Amino acid sequence: MGMLAKVKKAVGVRTSAFDTDALDDLIAAAVAEMARAGISMPVALDAGEGITESVEGDPLLRRAVILYCKANFGHTVNSELYQAAFDKLEAALCLRGDDDEV
Fold first, then answer.
1. I need a surface site. Which of 40, 41, 54, 98 has the fewest CB within 10 A?
2. Cα–Cα distance for residue pair 20/17, rounded to 1 Å
């Protein structure tokens, strides 16, 4: 299961109507946000289509993307909780350094 499918399942989307417009953009934004924060990413951001799949091998990056998407997709009661969880995981990922990559 690819990153888009995992995010769709996490946010409760069962249609492909949101794929390119909303969810793909959120996944890319999550990856860009983590790279901006100084987290080592498996591929360069300008690698094109491989961006969303680049986090597949790292469970912490995968979880961070899902949390970011849950916090920013739609307006849910728990958006602030998901954002706080993303922020904490992002901070922890910043501290792990390049030697700790999965």
1. 98
2. 8
**Lookup: tokens for 35:** 């790279």
Instruction: Kindly give, in sequence order, each residue whose CB lies less than 8 Å from that of residue 55, ignoring residues fewer than 6 positions away.
Output: 3, 31, 41, 42, 61, 62, 64, 65
pLDDT tens digits, 36-65: 999 987 754 444 445 555 677 789 999 999
Please tell me the pTM assigned to this model: 0.81
Identity (one letter) of the amino acid at 47?
A
* Tokens linked to 40: 């080592």
* Whole-number Å distance between alpha carbons of 86 and 29: 13
From the list 87, 59, 69, the residue with the least C-alpha distance to 23 is: 69
Q: Is 57 left (phi over 0), alpha (psi -120 to 50) or beta?
A: alpha
